[in-house]
Amino acid sequence: MQYSLVFFLSVSLAFAGDFMTQMEYAKMLYENPRGIGCVHCHGPKGEGKVLARFKEKGKEKEIVAPSLHGLSKERFAKGILASKSVMPTYFLTNDEIESLYYFVTNIQNNDKGK
């Protein structure tokens, strides 16, 4: 009995890596990393969007979540780790940041990310 349990667990773990593709995992993180997803502010493909418009001293102003395209990996990670003002702090691991960067750099060429 113990041997069959060990065999079953080892076989299960051997195939666990195929449970999700890298892009599926990255998309999942992008849509909901820690309660609120990047998608809500940066758009479904990281294109960025206007979050709010308001008037201040008679002038119209906007709060904008920037596009994530064209950023270096270092700048992307710095933006996540040094969150300020509207950007929430997520406390992501380096692997999660790598996955999110993979997503935003590959989303335009991948139909699964829609």
Q: What features would you describe in this structure?
A:
With 114 residues, this protein is of the alpha+beta class. It has a domain at 18-38 and 68-113. Helix content is 45%, strand content 13%. The chain is built from 5 helices and 2 strands, in the order αααββαα. A two-stranded antiparallel sheet has the order 1-2. Helix 2 crosses helix 5 (94-106). It is elongated, with a radius of gyration of 19 Å. The model has no long low-confidence stretch (mean pLDDT 83). Residues 1-16 form the signal peptide. Residues 29-106 form the Cytochrome c domain. Keywords: Heme, Iron, Metal-binding, Signal.
Write the layout of secondary structure elements.
Elements: H1 2-16, H2 22-31, H3 39-42, E1 49-56, E2 59-65, H4 73-81, H5 94-106
Antiparallel strand pairs: 1-2
Helix pairs in contact: 2-5
Concise synopsis of the structure shown:
The protein has 114 residues and is α+β, with helices and mostly antiparallel strands. The protein has 5 helices and 2 strands. It has a domain of 67 residues.
Number of helices: 5
Low-confidence stretches: none
CA-CA gap between termini? 46 Å
Largest sheet: number of strands, sense, barrel closure: 2 strands, antiparallel
β content, as a range?
Answer: 5-15%
> Secondary-structure element sequence?
HHHEEHH
Structural class: alpha+beta
> What Rg is obtained from the alpha carbons, in whole angstroms?
19 Å
Helix share of residues? 40-55%
Mean pLDDT metric: 83
Globular, elongated, flat, extended or rod-shaped: what is the shape?
A: elongated
Quaternary state of this entry equals single chain
Number of strands: 2
Task: Output the strand order for the largest sheet.
Answer: 1-2
